# Entry
Amino acid sequence: MKMHVLAGGRLRVRKGIYIPNVDRSETIELPISAFLIRHPQGNVLFDSGYHPSVAENAGVRWGGMAKSMTPIGLPDENVVDSLRCIGFNPEDIDVVVCSHLHPDHCGCTGFFTKATMVCHAKEVAAARAPDSAKMGYFRDDWDQIPIQEIDGQHDLFGDERIVLVPVPGHTPGTIAALVNLDRSGQFLLASDAVSLRFSLDENVMPRNTWNVDQAWASFAEIKRIENGGATVICGHDDVQWQSLKKGLDTYE
# Structure
């Protein structure tokens, strides 16, 4: 089994969302990561970044959200192009796991029309709620392919190689993926359960947290998994992003 780290876009946001006691004018750049996991039983994509169109005109797709979460990635810095750079097309993907349904994590889902989408049932319910747009959900990003809803921990292929772990708090149904590789070891793809390593190390809760109590419980679970030997890959940590193997350079 092999795991590729893929570029899913890049954002500029207010630094104060994640780091306390900074000037309101300060901003921070965030990479958007996605992962292709080549399992013997199928190709799995964990998260799909933002839609390619937002790199040139985010306001058309995101509306006012584009002012607070501004795409700054290059036009080809998206999951579809990232996959093509390593020899894969959308039709080669069998499963798309959505950590949650915010547009910087599921924006390319509609390209994978031959895949099954896996998402937590509580996340799907939140995204389909009448006021979901106010919570940062946009149906056009994810409502195009069949959804397999999970509730609780889920072993994707029944062999403990890719295990989906509920880590709610950022959103009602955020999930991480615990990936067990033969040579490189164990990785927890934490997505926005831990956007920046700073939050986990300093016990600082981001301001864009939906439920703080649940997020603290998820922090505890993530630390438990990390203490067991897993490498935690954060959702948007630029320092960590620079250190990761990417593209054709795989973890195995």
Summary: The first strand starts at residue 2 and ends at 14.
